[in-house]
Design brief:
By secondary structure, the chain is of the alpha/beta class. The protein is built from twelve helices and eleven strands. The chain is globular.
């Protein structure tokens, strides 16, 4: 919980990781990709304040104590949602797995939500594995990486018939929140494999699922906004938006937030710190203090209210995941105004 100026904010970090990208986990023969991947992640961290930058050795593999402190002791986070990333082509035990995340979550009840992941190129065995992970860890969501390499394949699409089989399985299992990485690429993955256009197709075909587009499709922000405004079950995941732009590119950040608020709306935007690329503390504090700038350049965009920030920082994610919001941290119910001269029933 974060408190500022008498207002209390329930914070749900919708996008966090517990990864192992140390050299001991690199697949022999794939070292250049494993090394390049984590170095690209590390470069993104430089977009945050200088005093939050880590040395590459710490960034490759951080321990449990560091993560718990950064998220919950210092970072104001009430609940964090694990978003796994397989990358087993480059990392022997996987980069950030459901199993490692789940084991940590079991040590700290109530702190984490464990999402899983899937890849339609895994066929029938993959469907069986998805079902087993959901039953074991109680997953309510999944993270998808459409640009991930798989043998000779360098990506897949939500339009693929095999992807529809997996989405049908998610619906059957109650895995309702589908987080899709659609945004900045990470070397050596292909930028076009993260194109946002296939979300439109899947969201229309599966109206009972929620599609949270992580990183809002950047740099294709207009494609995302015009798609999300027509699909009632498409949401904006703000990881990268706040962490990557608020400090380093404040004018562009304001424009992206302005477009999202206009087209997508404050009820469909979810905070995500994208730990451990960026720590949540400076993001939560900075966002609560932030306001749309004045001036002609930003005159099309709305100002943010305290209620808007409370929704984005946690209440919207709480609604999607069925989290109980502690007393005093939800929005106040509007006051009933009695009609003058008309007796109450």
């Amino acid at each position: 919980m974060y408190e500022k100026d008498g207002e209390k904010y329930f914070v749900v970090d919708g996008h966090t990781h517990f990864w192992d990208a140390s050299p001991a986990n690199w697949v022999p023969g794939q070292e250049q990709y494993a090394k390049g991947w984590i170095e690209c992640f590390h470069a993104y961290q430089s977009l945050g304040p200088a005093d939050t930058h880590w040395p590459i050795e710490k960034f490759q593999k951080y321990d449990e104590e560091t993560m718990m402190y950064d998220l919950f002791d210092a970072g104001h986070v009430d609940v964090a949602i694990f978003q796994p990333t397989s990358l087993r082509q480059w990392y022997k035990e996987g980069f950030n797995t459901t199993e490692a995340n789940g084991a940590l979550a079991e040590k700290y009840p109530g702190r984490f939500i464990v999402n899983t992941n899937w890849d339609p190129r895994d066929g029938d065995p993959g469907l069986k594995g998805l079902e087993e992970r959901v039953q074991r860890w109680g997953c309510k969501g999944a993270k998808l990486y459409t640009a991930e390499w798989h043998g000779d394949s360098r990506g897949w699409s939500l339009r693929d018939p095999e992807a529809s089989r997996y989405l049908e399985k998610c619906q059957e299992l109650g895995v309702k929140n589908i987080h899709v990485h659609k945004g900045p690429t990470i070397w050596p993955l292909d930028k076009d494999a993260f194109d946002v256009r296939d979300v439109d197709y899947a969201a229309t075909n599966f109206p009972e699922l929620n599609f949270i587009v992580e990183h809002v499709g950047l740099p294709r922000i207009e494609d995302f906004c015009f798609m999300a405004t027509q699909e009632p079950n498409v949401y904006a995941g703000l990881s990268v938006v706040i962490g990557g732009l608020m400090h380093a590119r404040p004018r562009f950040f304001a424009k992206v937030m302005g477009e999202l608020l206009f087209w997508v709306g404050e009820d469909k935007m979810l905070f995500g710190a994208d730990y451990a690329i960026w720590e949540p503390k400076w993001q939560v504090e900075g966002f609560v203090d932030w306001q749309m700038p004045d001036g002609e350049e930003f005159s099309d965009y709305q100002k943010l209210t305290v209620e808007t920030k409370k929704k984005i920082l946690g209440l919207n994610a709480a609604r999607l995941y069925g989290l109980e919001v502690p007393e005093g941290l939800d929005l106040k119910a509007p006051e009933t105004v009695e009609a003058v001269g008309v007796p109450s029933p």
